[in-house]
Amino acid sequence: MGLSNCKLQSRKQVGSSWVGNESENPFEILLNKKDRTCLRESFQRLQEPKEIVGIIFVDIVNDIEPDLRAVFGVNRAPKAAMLSMPKLGGHVARFTDLLEQITSMLGVSENLTGAWQLIRKTGRVHAKQSFLEQNFNQLEKNYFEIVLNVFDHRFIPYLTGEKEEPLPEGQAPRKVRFAQAYTPDVIATVWKKFFSILVAQMTDAFELERSKMRNSQNQKTLAPHQHIENEVKKKKRISERQSEIEHTANSVEKGPEQLFEDPF
Ligand code: HEM
Fold first, then answer.
1. ipTM summary value
2. Best CA proximity match to 39, nearest among 106, 117, 101, 98
3. pLDDT per residue of the chain (264 residues) written in tens, 0 to 9
4. What GO terms are given for molecular function (predicted)?
5. What distance in angstroms lies between residue 174's CA and the mean position of ligand 1's atoms?
6. Is 15 near ligand 1, meaning CB less than 6 Å away?
7. How far is the CA of 91 from the centre of ligand 1 (A)?
């Protein structure tokens, strides 16, 4: 059996995309068990992660990538009202849920395959966003990298305890705070690694999905023209066969060539 066949057999299909076997899972290769527990425990220390994610996204659309304002439907909204707009508010909620879900899969249920599938699926769904479909460029404008780089600087300090968490109005900080089992350096290093895995996996899944979409779009565009070409070929084949039949029929009508006795 060829190498490519072996490789294919060790892969399994997830939705419309392929993920490799466990030995290729970046959450397995690049993070050890202690790293994964650290991710989960440091995330769980946050009382209201959505508040922090919201503040960061508002800054991204205002100061870092204003082109994303239209994507998130906040073009005309004042800064203070942006998070109550459904698209931006929805994205902040989904982004936070994703962190919650993945850190739980990595640090609690140890469902590393599930975590990998989930992040690849998240990359894929973004190919359907027309802004990203048209403007995402791995080398110049990798929007996943832009966003998660901001998270490196702005989110990690809350995880390490370097910064005090913002809480919604009227909400008091938790009275009992668990002692942090990891040093700020360890937490920062693990989260940076985690974010870089997200960038790499989302980018790869996004690119694969986008080229698949473009290929099928191209085929649809080509189809009418191909239909005409095929029709012409078919007609030609039919008329060739017809003339062949007629030719044979003529020969049969004439009957076999008659041999006359030589009179001489
Ligand atoms: C949807 C996460 C970056 C635009 C989502 C969803 C998640 C997510 C979990 C929901 C997916 C689902 O429905 O299955 C992330 C993460 C990002 C990221 C982790 C990391 C960098 C971006 C960027 C854009 C974007 C840069 C800018 C175009 C959207 C839009 C949706 C979406 C428009 C559709 C749903 C909605 O309106 O909330 N994202 N996203 N995302 N994302 Fe992102």
1. 0.94
2. 106
3. 333 333 444 455 544 455 667 789 999 999 999 999 999 999 999 999 999 999 999 999 999 999 999 999 999 999 999 999 999 999 999 999 999 999 999 999 999 999 999 999 999 999 999 999 999 998 889 999 999 999 999 999 999 999 999 988 888 888 766 667 899 999 999 999 999 999 999 999 999 999 999 988 887 776 667 767 777 888 888 888 787 777 766 665 555 555 555 554
4. heme binding; metal ion binding; oxygen binding; oxygen carrier activity
5. 30
6. no
7. 6
Beta bridge partners of 141: 137
Cα–Cα distances (Å) from 225 to 103, 117, 216, 217, 256, in that order, read 50, 38, 15, 14, 47
Contact between 108 and 102 (Cβ < 8 Å): no
**To which H or E segment does residue 188 belong?**
helix 184-254
